[in-house]
Amino acid sequence: MKIPEIDPGARALREAVSASITPTASLLAALYGLLAFIHPFILSGDNRWTMSLLAAFSALLSAAIAVTWKKNPRQSQAHLASVLLSIIALINTVVHFALFRQAVNTTNFVVLILGIGLVMLSRISFYSIVAVALAAWVTIVARFDVPEPSEWGWFLFFAAFAGGILEEQRIHATRASGTRVDLLLQRSEVLQNLVKAPALSDTNVRPVLNLISEAARVNLTASSVTIWLIEGEKHELQLVASDQEDMADRRTDPPPTLNLSKQSIQLLFESRTVTSLRHPDRTSSKAISHRQETDWPTLYVGIISSRNLAGVIVIERKSIDSEWTLEDQMFAASIADLANLALQTRQRISLEGQARKAEHLESLGVLAGGVAHDFNNLLTVILGNIELMQESEGQSGETKTSLESMMEAGVRARDLAQQMLAYAGRAHRETQTIDLAAFGSEIDQDWAHDLLEGIEVVFDIDRTRILAVDVDPTQIRQVILNLLTNARDSGASKITISVGSEDNLRLSGDDSILNNSDCHWLMVTDNGSGMPPGEIERIFEPFYTTRETGTGLGLAASRGIMRAHLGALTVESTLNRGSQFRMLLPRSSKIPQMISPEELGQLVSVPEKTKVLLIEDETLVAQLATTMLKQSGRQVQWLDSLTAFQNELPSINLKKIEFALIDVTLGDGSGLDAATLLRERQPRLPIILVSGYDARNVLKDQRLGDSFEFLAKPFSRGGLQTSIDNAIARIETP
Questions:
Q1: Are the C-beta atoms of residues 467 and 436 closer than 8 Å to each other?
Q2: What's the distance, CA 258 to chain centroid?
Q3: What SS3 state is found at 239?
Q4: Cβ partners under 8 Å of residue 622, min gap 6
Q5: Is the peptide bond preceding residue 73 cis, with omega within 30 degrees of 0?
Q6: If you classify domain 209-351 with CATH, what class do you get?
Q7: Is residue 323 scored above 80 in pLDDT?
Q8: 274-294: average pLDDT
Q9: For residues 614, 616, 621 and 623, what is the CA-based torsion angle, rounded to 10 degrees?
């Protein structure tokens, strides 16, 4: 079904006439009701009663029209109703002239014509009645044979012209109002269509901004529409969209920018829109600097987001005589609000994506941490028993080789578990202050020498500078090894290692924790194959790898380690040109320490009567620990749960216990509860807490203070002996 198109001016006229029927009919009813009462007193002769009855009938008919139209107005019959009211007035006037033949009564036509001019918005009806009135005037003047022209009632003649002027003014004003309403409706429909546009919900705002600029050009009869957004590190207004496709799709380096003065920005904040007529020979206090000088009327519209200027829409017209109406500026402001909505939608989608990604990565972190913890329990048993077997006598050469292979595989599995814990942010850290410059200089000379064989390594390091940072050297070494491995696998023939410092660092996204802080950095730059942008976004995802033999945990664990150190790991890469990884660490005010190598050591033998309390729910781990401790001459009392410990505690003579070895995570509770009970009963008892997680997760419990030692799984006999010595030293230190 096709909906007929209606002229907005004609519709406005019809609506105006319809709205005036009831008040006009009511006024006519009041007028003729009054005349019905006063005619018998002001007129003479028998005809006065005729005029009174006619006036009374006219009053009743007018009142009926007013009541009927108020209850059921019909716009399609509005002109017919106005003609009927005009006929009532015309009949009363003509009858009055016929019964009372004084030429001076032609002034009644003035009231008739002016009244019709206020009601009739149809030129045909209006000028027809005016013609009838003028004809009646001429007839009466001629019929009465008025000799003096001054007595002809010329006021009626001029009133006809006055009524015509009034009629034309009302018609044009009403049509203009209808056209304005229609324009507003059309623009409202355009805005609604833009709101429904699928491009509005896309993270790429350029398509919807191009639609917005095209809509602005068409609806504002503009010659050019450009949209500028604050982009880049310098926060400049850069061209991002235009109604001209060649300009919108053009990519220049550097991109076109729009310069705004502080006064212009203030004007945009105050009024949202600023009009300017720019000409090379004159300036204006409201002029805004533009990249081209023209003499076209220009409208600047601010895109305001969160009380900040997010962008500007520049709309130009070639016609210098054209003015920006209030409706134009309101529509332009609505267009700017849509652009702001597109920007907020992009930000919301981006934040939602980051939240989903963070939730996903957090879930993977929890999973990786849990798997690594259980894996460490198994590795504790495997590596510990291999170590015991290697020290047994009477082994053949083949057996020793097999044990060495098993130990090497176990160590690699331990390193993999540590990377999983590092990604989850739960790896054990032993922090000390080191000089990052000295640490970086030792890479090729010490622990990464074999890895870098055949690759040119350039050190851009000033050894005279001391860059103090608080880190776990083992974990930072692992991060650097991961970066060097990544460079080697990318086919790099040259690697540059550099260090430096940066003040008031500015980062974005997940690494914003270092914003506005001072840091030291170590950078690894290679000339390998590089990465495309899509791959850069994913390299830190766990288990994502582009190598067939990769685990996908190296860079993910590296970022986890850096975040655990309150630092960051950033990357810049260009395909076929190489990559640049930068490790950022907060500065330290402490004096750097020498990095001491890990001591393997052995368990020291003790008298056989020395007793140890072991609380461990993993049977295999408990058996291994018992074997190690018994070989050193100790007696072990093993309890496999928190409940068993609580039941046996009253009968345990804690004064005869050398130390307690407690697993933090028990099947029926926390080992910290057991440690708390032991500390309450025997404050001087050395306590060693064992866990496959980071010691910080244990140390944050303040119930035990700092009088206990932590031992990370998997552990060796040397590591166990070191923890025993440290635990005893903590108790003996006042």
A1: yes
A2: 24
A3: strand
A4: 614, 616, 638, 640
A5: no
A6: alpha beta
A7: no
A8: 45
A9: 50
Residues 6+ apart with CB under 8 A from 609: 635
Fold of 432-586: Heat Shock Protein 90 (3.30.565)
From the candidate CATH numbers 3.90.1010.10, 3.10.150.10, 3.10.450.50, 3.40.50.2300, the one assigned to the domain spanning 611-732: 3.40.50.2300
Average pLDDT over residues 512-520: 69
Contact 125, 80 (CB under 8 A): no
Has residue 104 got a pLDDT over 70? Answer: no
Cβ distance 585 to 521 under 8 Å?
yes
Please state the φ and ψ torsions of residue 574, each to the nearest 5 degrees. Answer: -130, 130
Report d(CA 642, CA 303) in Å as an integer.
63
- Most confident segment among 50-59, 108-117, 277-286, 421-430: 50-59
- Report which of 674, 664, 672 is spatially closest to residue 711, judged by C-alpha positions: 664
Cα gap 660→723, rounded to integer Å: 11
pTM here is 0.48
- Give residue 82's identity as a one-letter amino acid code: S
Please tell me the least confidently modeled range out of 304-308, 391-395, 678-682.
391-395
pLDDT of residue 248: 47
pLDDT, residue 218, reads: 84
Report pLDDT digits (tens) over 334-376. 888 888 888 888 778 777 776 776 666 666 666 666 666 677 7
- Report residue 582: phi and psi, to 5°: -125, 125
Which phi and psi (to 5°) does residue 508 adopt?
Answer: -130, 170
- For residues 125 and 76, the answer to whether their CB atoms sit within 8 Å is no
- Amino acid at the residue 641: S
**Which residue type occupies 563?**
R
- Cβ-Cβ contacts under 8 Å for 165 (sequence gap 6 or more): none
Q: Read off φ and ψ for residue 470, nearest 5 degrees.
A: -100, 110
CA atoms within 13 A on the CB side of 729: 7
- The answer to whether the CB of 297 falls within 8 A of the CB of 323 is yes
- Amino acid making up residue 485: T
- pLDDT at residue 237 greater than cutoff 60: yes
Q: What is the identity of the amino acid at 170? A: R
* 136: pLDDT strictly greater than 90: no
Cα–Cα separations (whole angstroms), residue 428 to 474, 694, 699: 10, 4, 11
Percent helix, strand, coil in the chain (nearest 5)? 55, 15, 30
In contact, 27 and 72? CB cutoff 8 Å: no
CB 248 within 8 A of CB 242: yes
Q: Residue 311 forms beta bridges with which residues?
A: 229, 303
Q: Please give the structure tokens belonging to residue 629.
A: 């401790």
**Which tens digits make up the pLDDT trace of 367-381?**
666 666 677 777 777
HSE (side-chain half, CA atoms, 13 Å) at 578: 15
pLDDT above 70 coverage of the chain, percent: 70
Q: Quick one: three-class SS letters along 523-588? A: EEEECCCCCCHHHHCCCCCCCCCCCCCCCCCHHHHHHHHHHHCCCEEEEEEECCCEEEEEEEEECC
